Amino acid sequence: MRKPIAVIFVLLIGFLIFYTTLPVINYRFTGFAVILIFLIILGNLLTAQVNASKDKVKFKFNKLQKFLFRLIPILLIYVIVLPFVTGSPIFHSESYRELIGEVETGNTMSNHIAPISIDKVRVVDEELASLLGEKIIGSDPALGSKSELGEFFIQKVGDDLFWVAPLLHSGFFKWLNNTEGTDGYVMVSATNERDVRLVQKLNGKDIKIKYQPEAFFGSRADRHAYFNGYATTGLTKFIFEVDNEGNPFWVASKYDKEIGFSGNDAVGVVVIDAQTGAIKEYGIADTPLWIDRIQPISFVIDQLSDWGEYVHGYWNWSNEDKLMITEDLTLVYGKDGRPYWYTGVSSVGKDESAVGFVLVDTRTKETTFYKQSGATEYAAQKSAEGKVQEKRYHASLPVPYTINGIPTYVMTLKDGGGLVKMYAMVAIGDYTIVGVGNTMPEALMAYKNVYNMSGNRINPDAEDTRTNLTTVISRIQSDIKNGNSFYYFTVDGSSKIFIGSSQLSNELPVTKEGDSITISFDNDVEDVINVSTFDNLKLGIKK
Description:
Helix content: 25-40%
Radius of gyration: 30 Å
Structural class: alpha+beta
Number of helices: 11
Largest sheet: 6 strands, mixed
Distance between the termini: 99 Å
Strand content: 25-35%
Number of strands: 32
Oligomer: single chain
């Protein structure tokens, strides 16, 4: 091959590699150096003088080619040796352990996890959101033939929790025929499976998702950022989010290498307007509040794992005091409304019992470790499934909430088709305390009944926060659900409706209007309150 043609060919190959792989051109990132090694070898072989004989082929290289070959060992040292020396945990275990930052020790997890409100409990997981989203897309054949549903991410939109996913091009030719963008996105309420929205207009204008992670040429989100000033910047996967007005964006975390060529750590975000392509960059402190994730889940998993692994350095063969996260991280919202990554933490080798729980602020990475024993997410799932084992339902990934000061896992029980059939609550501190029901209120009532009968064995020293009330029945009616009798009643001086089962007290079935009673109940935010104890003062039955 003639040298000019060979040089043009190598340059073209180099451009295509850079255009498709988008290596970060930064000395802390070694991907571009690997490409350079490949291009040097290819270029030298194509431009060398070739002397062919019957026995062998000889390549004759000029001074420039020899110089380029001498660069290869230097580049290999840069790609292999230098990262090992500057970033191997063998030499830098303490730095890896400290990458998560200062880990504060919390007293009571219930002070951090959001208290429960029945209509705000997350009952739709990602799997169900995908099923519901596919259903609404499938209802429009024209839309389904040219678009497909992207990945769902949970986020707060205003004060409500939604799973949000964009419509994406289903292939190259679909993109070619629709380069202006796909027709909107899907929102599925995380608290109400009947609330599924196909959002295609905003303020009277059509929504067009032009920039996408899987689009082609300049419409691909990461390539758009790369060739608009971010070729030297480490960026994570782009995640779809909408602001509180419903405008669609792609958000990627910007990150640096903190330990040699390793130790990825988020320092801000890069935001691309999914319709116009406008790019904005924010630091951690000034990132808009509608962006829920600055700290990527993969970074936090790695940093928490290193924090638990290198507690006594790298050479800890006996696994003394080692900790490991119990499951994948779950996005939860605290009392302050802020998003957190949540996971249980167990000792190495212990699968079902957690020694504590961790909450990591998804924006600032502030980390709190609660040293309290309890059930792992897996153990809680198995406990809930065991309660209805004859139905062969499988539990969704548990989400932690606080119920009357008690940290509690809440999950759904689904059939083989992924549809929600029942709801379950499991005490984090004792996974034998389980409540299930066909509705969330039923599950809550069953859970409270089991907990009240447990004798507060989760925390015997906890103060009683129940309200005690002596009053008069103003109205009472019974109802039968799933073979159990429940009694709904109102009392003088209260607008609340109270409920109790015949299992709670054998006085309830014979109580009537006008009877004087004493009840106790948890300080609840609901309009229908489950009573913890019931005593009809007129009957005086000994219990």
